[in-house]
Hints:
Layout: H1 17-47, H2 63-90
Amino acid sequence: MVLRIRVRPTRVRINGWRGLALAASALLTPGVAAALALAIWRLGADLGLLGNFVIGDGLFSHWQVWLLLAVALQMLSSALARAGQAAGASGRSRPFEESDQAMP
């Protein structure tokens, strides 16, 4: 007796760009926190409240640069998250509605 099992190859796909936008947004969030921490550290070092800053001279030795970088990364992360969610709303999936609940 020969038993044949046919398996179709399938791919799990999250609407192409939607998944990429959401993943990039999630990965930018720790970068925002790090840039903000460096801005606070540099500002504290300038005020004499904290120890020496790791970068002594150059463009990245100023707290304003780190704060601007944190704000820019946060804006980019928010825009990517919004774009990823908007792409998901127009796709096949629909938001949860009350009619989807099982009747008790």
